[in-house]
Amino acid sequence: MYRKGVAALIINNNQEFLLVNLLSFEEKYFAIPGGGLDPGESLEDTAYREIKEELGIEKESLELIGKSENPLQFKFKEIKLSREGIEYEGSEKNFFGFKFIGGDSEIKVQEDEVRSYKWVPFSELKNYLLFDEQLEDTQEKIGEIFQDFTIDNKYISN
What we know:
Blueprint lengths: L1 E10 L4 E7 L11 E3 L6 H13 L6 E6 L4 E4 L5 E3 L2 E3 L1 E11 L13 E8 L12 H12 L4 E2 L2 E2 L3
Parallel strand pairs: 1-8
Antiparallel strand pairs: 1-3, 2-9, 4-8, 5-8, 6-7, 10-11
């Protein structure tokens, strides 16, 4: 069984993506903000809740751009996640895209979970998204959700 969750691709006015370095990671590893679905919660509500919990960003400072058509499934290599008596062999992430319309002064990391955050241009994601297939999967979802996103005036989506 796969635990349902979300990943929030957040872009700023400089076309940089917001990444988080979780305390559970080594300092060189970053991820897209997100987390698991709570009982009775919609996927969209989960995205807003996780962004607020991890980064302190309010819903009013985010403009929803879109949602990916299909979730990505990640199978855990060894550890099985256990929540409320249910064992999960992996997670299923639904990706949402947001434009951050607030100011960086609003960003306050949850210190017991997030070590730091970083705004990263598309061309530098390869330096931070270092887990297996993380970069490729993220780039695919950026192309799907941010259909007008360009790098050097070239569209990255099909």
